[in-house]
Amino acid sequence: MNQDDLKNLTIENARDLLDSHQISSLELTEAYLERIENTESDVNSFVTVSKETARNDAKNADILINSGSQNLLTGIPLQLKDNLCTSGIRTTCSSKMLENFIPPYDAFVAEKLKKQGAVLLGKGNLDEFAMGSSTENSAFQSTKNPFDITRVPGGSSGGPAASVSASQCLFSLGSDTGGSIRQPASLCGVVGLKPTYGRVSRYGLIAFASSLDQIGPITHTVKDSAMVLNNIAGFDSKDSTSLNVPVPNYLDKIDNGIKGFKIGVPKEYFQEGIDPGVEKIIRDSLNVLENLGAEISEISLPLTSYALAVYYIIAPSEASANLTRYDGVKYGFNYSDAENMWEGIEKTRQFGFGDEVKRRILLGTYALSSGYYDAFYLKAQKVRTLIRKEFEDAFQSYDVLAMPTSPSTAFKLNEKMNDPMQMYLNDIFTIPANIAGIPSISIPAGMNNGLPVGLQMMAGALQEEKLFQASYAFEQATDWHKIKPDI
Amino acid sequence: MSNNDDLTSEAIRHLASLTRISMSDEEVEKMRDEMSNILDNIAVLNEINTDSVDPTGHSVDLTSVLRDDVSKDSLSTTDILSNAPNHDEDLIKIKPVFE
After folding, report:
1. Which residue, A369, A459, A371, A444, is CA-closest to A405?
2. DSSP 3-state assignment of A256?
3. What confidence score (pLDDT) does residue A216 get?
4. Could you tell me if A101 lies within 8 Å of chain B, comparing CB atoms?
């Protein structure tokens, strides 16, 4: 298989090629390893490429396929964000703190994919501990946007989004705490899904903000997204927040169309600092949905702009607690020249964490301090209740909500690194779904000055099927998902 | 909530010590400026009346999860210690806690 063929490949048609023995998993894997080799110096999306284990995975997958006992993802080459633990393969969180950490166990999703016979190509770069919106906070490298390598891929799942966009793998899994799957998917022209909180087990996902974190797929197409979710969703006794409810087959209703679908368009997502080029593309996309038979109505969600403030209290608070475990004693980076234990811990954390991580740990500690707890953390949790209710009310009347994923297209490397608040504003349209715990998807919807623009849709809790139905109808009616970077 | 004059360099040093992160004076000043700016932006929440609102900790309603009291296999000591920076046989070694 040559490099250009890879650019048009999806999980769906790779499955056909594998099952009809037109290509083996090992041949497919070798093609992707070669593609990674040829493009990685421009894209920098991998922290680790696990060539040998990938070849072994592929050989085992070929045995399964040849004996007719394959599943949907058997033999399919993928990447995992480097905050998902992989047994025996370095898992760094793109932090100096975990630079040499080799987990002795697999994350729930890694184990599920392994059992299916999927082929792990390597681990995707991210903002350190998934804190950021450009992947520039990685302690190792900045990932580049495949559509323009002078620009960021978004973040924090910048490695996963860029690698799918550059056809270095058939899919990747990211994590989304405030938009970390959807915003980079939007900026890199691929499909990114954040499922309902609790839909996919977080066991083995290195924790950032536990009440917001959720794992989801980054893929070339909507159908591929549904195929991956089919195989990673479900209850897990090792995650106490995992939902014990049946998993539907997400492909069943995907082709049902959207005639009579009620789509709400919250006007607040078209106000604050949105690029006019992005707005035009989203408005055009709404016309496409209307022409497909959906009923489009403008609605108001007045609390939208407060979600960012709620997030920047809750996420750092939870992070400050979660990140206390990094002390250089049990695992991870250790400052070895200390005189005593306390100096060792303080220097380990000084040199092991980057600036953004320290900023959030301090901010969270401040918000949780006695004297400030009620005014910050409790206040944010109360506003969270109101935001959640605002969405619940909207979904009484509407099947899905539609809006832009990000207020702008990909920005230049270093453009926002010196102004944390400007960086945080990138996630203004994605954060509300995390606060409410609802599913949300970003799909390619147009190009503005040569850069991809994502259309975002949200649905009520556990209504992923509606998201797939609406996005698939849009995708079938447009060709935006077929535009690939020249890289 | 918006009274960020509270956020003195001394307050940042106190937070740094609570979180056990050493910081240079330069880092303290930079952190103070950045955090003040973030806290100013967060202060918009004061505009919302939350008097009779219950807090939300998780977006899904959680109940305590119990399991049967049955022992299961777990990771071996060797696996656990494989990532420890310093260990002596089955014990993790740390620097002195007391002088």
Report:
1. A444
2. coil
3. 98
4. yes
Q: Tell me the mean pLDDT in the region A371-378.
A: 92
Residue B97's pLDDT band (boundaries 50, 70, 90)? confident
Chain A residues touching B57 at Cβ < 8 A:
211, 381
Domain annotation for chain A: domains and CATH numbers: 3-260+400-482 (3.90.1300.10)
Q: Which domains does chain B have, with CATH numbers?
A: 4-47 (1.10.20)
- Chain B CB within 8 Å of residue A366 CB: yes
Which residues of chain B lie closer than 8 angstroms to A101, CB-CB? 83
User: Of A180, A242, A285, A440, which one is the catalytic site residue?
Assistant: A180
Shortest alpha-carbon distance between residue B57 and chain A (Å): 6
Give whole-number Cα distances, B4 to A258, B9, B36, in Å: 50, 12, 6
Backbone dihedral region of A224: left (phi > 0), alpha (psi from -120 to 50 degrees) or beta? alpha
pLDDT higher than threshold 60 for residue A237? yes
Cβ within 8 Å, pair A330-B92: yes
Local structure of A344: helix, strand or coil? helix
Chain A contact present for B92, CB below 8 A = yes
Binary contact (B62, A240; C-beta < 8 A): yes
Tell me which residue of A352, A308, A266, A303 sits closest to A133, measured CA to CA. A308
Tens digit of pLDDT for each residue in A401-416?
A: 999 999 999 999 999 9
Gyration radius of chain A over CA positions: 21
Tell me whether residue A156 is one of the annotated catalytic residues. Answer: yes
Please state whether the peptide bond connecting residue A134 to the residue before it is cis, i.e. omega within 30 degrees of 0. no
Tell me the pairing of strands A191-194 and A440-448: antiparallel
Neighbours of A333 (CB within 10 A): 20
Which residue has 């609570």 as its token pair?
B18
Tell me the pLDDT tens digit for each residue of B41-94.
Answer: 999 999 999 999 999 988 877 777 788 899 988 899 999 999 999 999 899 999
Residue A293 CA to residue A173 CA, distance in Å, equals 32
pLDDT for the residue A271: 83
Measured distance CA(A404)–CA(A282) in Å, rounded: 6
Is A256 near chain B, with CB under 8 Å?
Answer: no
Residue A444 vs residues A69, A163, A404, B57, B65: alpha-carbon distances, Å = 34, 16, 11, 33, 40
